Amino acid sequence: MYDVVLLTLGSERDAPGGCGSGGACCGGATEAATDPTNQTDSGPASQAQAGGDTERCATERPRVPVLACSDALIARGARVEMVTARSDAEIDAVLARLDGPARADGLTWPDLDGKTRLVVATASDGQLRAVLRRLVRRYAPAPSRRPADLPGNRTLPDLPPVAVLPLDPARGGAHQDLAAQLGLPRDPAAVAAAVVDGTARRLDLLRNDGGSVTLDGALLGAADDAGRPLHWRARVEVDDTVLTNGDEPLLACVVGNAGGYATLDDVTLLAAPDPADGKIEVAVAVPVVVRSALGRKRVRLEVRRARGRAVSVLPREGKVPYLDDGVEGELTRKRSWWIEPGAWAVWSI
Description:
Blueprint: E1 3-9, H1 44-49, H2 54-58, H3 64-75, E2 79-85, H4 88-95, E3 116-122, H5 125-139, E4 162-166, H6 178-182, H7 188-197, E5 199-208, E6 213-214, E7 217-220, E8 234-238, E9 241-245, E10 252-256, E11 263-264, E12 267-268, E13 280-291, E14 297-308, E15 310-315, E16 320-324, E17 327-331, E18 335-348
Parallel strand pairs: 1-2, 1-3, 3-4
Antiparallel strand pairs: 5-6, 5-18, 7-10, 7-16, 8-9, 8-15, 10-13, 11-12, 13-14, 15-18, 16-17
Helix pairs in contact: 3-7, 4-5
């Protein structure tokens, strides 16, 4: 039978330091000290944006879904340990249990056949991403130590599957969390069933040159206090396709792995995002002035799309605000994302 670790991310008020951000795992974290693009991985504003609840994250007592999932796992014969991690080091200590046998080359490698399984209780996609980022940092070898058994289209091995226990109900509207998009179970008993009796569903992962990862997608752009989109400029290139060279104004750019940012208001940006097709889908929204037959000017929104293995965004001026898996940040210099096909996995029924 399996040993199952039920991992919950703690709050800023519980301890100093945080999950890859210099702040805390849930509420108040900022990457200003560690990320050159000044991306934040949590914080009151971003937590609210992602649908989290900092008050509930701050409690010392496990939330009801965590306790219910633990009970369901125990009823299925699993040995369960509940852990609250308040720092990267505490997350890493949990992830170390997923290590495989020692290799001759000295690399730390995951054990995909191990008897320890991980459940991540998440109040937001940003929290799930915090754990996946630590998995990547643990198992991705340095380029100089790339082993011969690593697939040619990947920079890291298959990561151990994780189970996702959403702590909040599914929300309607245009933006759904990743669990809802993937059709993963939300009921604690169903999550327990997936952990013990389910199969690993492999998914693509986006890595970026800022040292982080993206599970769902990133939306670049901003609006004024009245909600009107602000114009900005950047060069956006997908593989060898240039969507915009930076000379024209943009309203938005989406880098998509899944469909969380597929639409903006009533505009479809991503046509058919698929988190398991080995491709990044990218779109830019460009306002274009056109004239009618009577010479009247009007503005229409032109959406340009491309798919590929990598994308780069180079801001031409100032800072470009963005959301990445629901986490707020500002892009001040070139950022590149690339796809890691099938790199991570979720337990599903």
